[in-house]
């Protein structure tokens, strides 16, 4: 039954996609933590390739892919599609802000509280920017209003989560610790997302706004999997190349 004009739309969630959104966030966080430990060389110079990998892992997979899989889990009584340009811009924003945050927190290979705090604040704000850009990319027969108190709570969650993740990224060395850290980071990112979605009230309107390019349904699913898969392959390619170069260097020294 079609919703009535002015009716408050009540969302429901697909539990399987909610779980999948958490798993993909965990995967992105784990890749980012692994790459972050090699962002700075022993002499303190920046390894641009590993920095890009860390930023793409955290921003592109851990945050952006998680968000849009979670949005696929978000079901309303009206069809939902997304503005292609805003969706693409949210991906770029997530990667760029994540990269800057990781760079600040790394402090040229020497952990500093000032850099960590600046990076944490930027990363938390970046998560929220990406999230709300993704929400405003929605194209549907509804107007959206946000509860500012709940929005603020989601921002606090994002900053606290980012501070914990960045501290762990540059202070833990064992793989098991990084796995635990990635599990915590993914939980925090997902918590921020679903609190942010709780802040939104959708009121039914007559028609969806006209936009030049939009994407939705199975096409969005395919796009998310494609981005996450492509980024993962590129990251493995860079990391494998670094590993082979290190092995060659070690062999040449013997």
TrEMBL record:
Transmembrane segments: 15-33, 45-64, 84-104, 116-138, 150-172, 179-202, 222-240
GO CC terms in record: membrane
Residue ranges annotated for the MHYT domain, each copy included: 13-203
Keywords assigned: Membrane, Transmembrane, Transmembrane helix
InterPro entries cross-referenced by the UniProt entry: MHYT_dom
Keyword Transcription regulation: no
PANTHER family per record: DOMAIN SIGNALLING PROTEIN, PUTATIVE (AFU_ORTHOLOGUE AFUA_5G11310)-RELATED (PTHR35152:SF1)
Protein name stated in the entry: Sensory box/GGDEF family protein
Organism: Collimonas arenae
């Amino acid at each position: 039954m079609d919703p009535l004009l002015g009716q408050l739309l009540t969302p429901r969630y697909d539990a399987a996609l909610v779980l999948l959104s958490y798993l993909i966030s965990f995967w992105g966080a784990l890749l980012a933590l692994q790459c972050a430990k090699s962002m700075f060389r022993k002499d303190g110079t920046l390894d641009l390739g590993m920095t890009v990998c860390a930023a793409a892992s955290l921003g592109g997979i851990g945050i952006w892919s998680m968000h849009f899989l979670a949005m696929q889990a978000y079901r309303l009584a009206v069809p939902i599609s997304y503005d292609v340009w805003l969706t693409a811009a949210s991906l770029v924003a997530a990667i760029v802000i994540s990269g800057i945050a990781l760079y600040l927190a790394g402090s040229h290979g020497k952990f500093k509280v000032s850099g960590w705090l600046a990076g944490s604040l930027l990363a938390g704000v970046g998560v929220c920017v990406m999230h709300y850009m993704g929400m405003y990319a929605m194209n549907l027969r509804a107007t959206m209003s946000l509860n500012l108190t709940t929005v603020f709570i989601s921002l606090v969650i994002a900053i606290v989560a980012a501070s914990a993740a960045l501290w762990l990224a540059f202070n833990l060395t064992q793989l098991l610790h990084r796995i635990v850290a990635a599990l915590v980071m993914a939980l925090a990112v997902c918590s921020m997302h679903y609190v942010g979605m709780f802040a939104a009230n959708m009121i039914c309107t007559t028609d969806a706004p006209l936009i030049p390019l939009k994407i939705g349904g199975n096409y969005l699913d395919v796009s998310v999997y494609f981005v996450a898969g492509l980024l993962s392959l590129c990251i493995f390619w860079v990391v494998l190349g670094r590993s082979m170069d290190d092995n060659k260097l070690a062999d040449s020294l013997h």
